Amino acid sequence: MSARGTARARHLLLAYPGAMLGVFFLGPFGIMLAVSFFQRVENAFYEPAFVLSNYARLFSDLFLSNLVFSLSLSMLVAVVSVSLAFPFTYLLTRLSLRWQTFWLVFLLSVLSLSEVIVAFSWSVLLSKTAGVSNVFVWLGLLDQPESYTPGFIAEVFGYGYLTLPYTVLMLYPQMSRLDPELMEAARTMGASPQRAFFNVLVPVMRRPIVAALILVFVFTLGIYLIPQILGQPQHWTLSVLITDQAIYQSNVPFAAALAVFLLLTSLTLIVLTFALGGRQSVGRTS
Predict the structure, then answer these.
(1) Among 44, 52, 81, 119, which residue's beta carbon has the most beta carbons within 10 A?
(2) What ranges in 53-180 are assigned the alpha helix state H?
(3) Which residue has the higher pLDDT, 8 or 160?
């Protein structure tokens, strides 16, 4: 193939993902951004305009505190999920290929469950009438059954159940390609298993860990059924408020402004995370 044909083929390959990005992300985002400046009409829908009142309302104590809670909760879930998934993935890669396949298929089957089923299953499991507290009473650990839902802990459990399979699947490809002699070499040089794990394995897996943290963080920000079913109103995230404004309050312009604000805030945090990771990489290599 000539150089001109090669360049044309390269442009076509780049055009396809660019077109997909424009149709399924940039187009809807542009529409949402435009609607966020529209004027809400009482007892109707909205009309085209250019008003900043929707964004000015974001800086009220209610929405700022909810934004801080949503971001903090997403960070907590990301850290908990990666902390649980990392040793699980490491042990998974130590198994035979047959057992690795079994656990990976099991994790994929967990992903087939919808968010509604997961939320109501945890609601029953943590309830007073048929929940796990009845087992604690039977074991003599509690005097009477207790209800753990709705509450913050139940909400974190629900988030963790949804995000853990994704985290394992993010870490597995890189960890399965690691040379098993790496840990053995550290042990041979006198490192304890714990020290070899944290001083050798974790630094080598730093980039997949950061990628998994970002994935879980972004994924958690978009979940809105888990906090509604498992959490109390003070534990509702910004995603729940966006749904409430768009559907129940019929205030689509303000819901669009909330969504744009949440998107820009999360993108800023992700860029800062990448910048910090790149700076640390330069510091290690210099």
Answers:
(1) 81
(2) 53-56, 61-93, 97-111, 115-125, 133-138, 152-176
(3) 160
Token pair belonging to 205: 């897996």
Q: Give the tens place of pLDDT for each residue, 120-155.
A: 888 888 888 877 888 888 888 888 888 888 888 888
Q: What is the largest CA-CA distance in the chain?
A: 81
pLDDT band at 71; cut points 50, 70, 90: confident
CA nearest neighbour of 53 among 256, 238, 282, 226: 256
Structure tokens at 171: 């870490």
* Tokens describing residue 5: 């044909």
Cβ-contact 277, 207 below 8 angstroms: yes
Copy the structure tokens of residue 35.
């609607």
Distances (CA, A) of 113 to 121, 142, 186, 259: 11, 32, 41, 26
DSSP H or E segment with residue 240: helix 238-243
